[in-house]
Amino acid sequence: MLSRRDALRAITLTSLAAVTTRWLPSSARAQTPDGSQLVPPPPTGPSVNAPFSLPPLPFAFDALEPHIDARTMEIHHDKHHAAYVNNLNKAVENHPDLARRTLQDLISNLDEIPEAIRTAIRNNGGGHFNHTLFWNSLQPQNNGQPEGDFDKAIRADLGGIKDFMNALSQAAMAAFGSGWAWLSLNADGKLIVESLPNQDSPLMHGRKPIFGIDVWEHAYYLHYQNRRADYIAAIWNIVDWPAVSLRYSDARSA
Ligand SMILES: [Fe+2]
């Protein structure tokens, strides 16, 4: 019988042909093996003006309760994430050369984007990418801890799981206004903790995102109001460690 990790790996391998960047959310690939939500179709045919689509949540709206309430999840996914996708499609609708590129390619090479739509691509492309990764980093039940090489890297680069969790929580608390706290793989192959504003992705700064915490108020305000620290503490109960560990392995081998 296949373990969950084996199953994730098998799905990853079968979908590699369609997904060009292996550090994309592993379970996103499981949800849509053809990568359709992240890799736009050729710029011909009926979807030429809407190459990007909203991927479904990999769980029910209420699956993360009591840590994240169903109403927050519904609005976060169906309204906020959907708006990023819609606005990204609007940004590229008159740019067929951009519409044929993948999302990760677009946001990794912002300097190649025409200035008139660069901010729109940055904000909405980043928003689409970050939220897709976020949904595919969470799961309803405690399912272990960092595994394999990922566990070793956390020990070597960040002092162990406890220090890592403290550092990421502090980065999430320290983020002023709207932004994300990230665990990223830098160009030297080391794990780092950082906070980035708005919808910036580590990809925009030459790093690969491994795990992120969304600290925009839309992520928690309905249930937690101003208690961001409680929301951050709750996130640690619903991290999908096998998926995050696999994302690290993929990032190292990409
Ligand atoms: Fe968000």
What does this structure look like?
- This protein has 254 residues and is mostly helical.
- The protein has a domain at 148-253: Iron/manganese superoxide dismutase, C-terminal domain (minor pseudopilin epsh fold, 3-Layer(bab) Sandwich), CATH 3.55.40.
- Helices cover 48% and strands 8% of the residues.
- Strand 1 and strand 2 (191-197) form a beta hairpin.
- The chain binds fe (ii) ion.
- Fe (ii) ion binds next to helix 3.
- Fe (ii) ion is lined by residues 76, 80, 131, 214, 216, 218-219.
Q: Pairing-aware structural class of the strands and helices?
A: mainly alpha
Overall pLDDT score: 85
The radius of gyration is 17 Å
Contiguous low-pLDDT stretches (5 residues minimum) are: 1-23, 25-37, 39-49
Count of β-strands = 3
Helix content range of the residues, please?
40-55%
CATH homologous superfamily name of the domain at 148-253?
A: Iron/manganese superoxide dismutase, C-terminal domain
Q: What ions, cofactors and ligands are bound?
A: fe (ii) ion
CATH topology grouping of the domain at 148-253: minor pseudopilin epsh fold
Which percent range describes the beta-strand content?
5-15%
The total count of helices amounts to: 11
Biggest pleated-sheet summary: 3 strands, antiparallel
Strand order of the largest sheet: 2-1-3
Note the overall shape.
globular
CATH architecture of the domain at 148-253: 3-Layer(bab) Sandwich
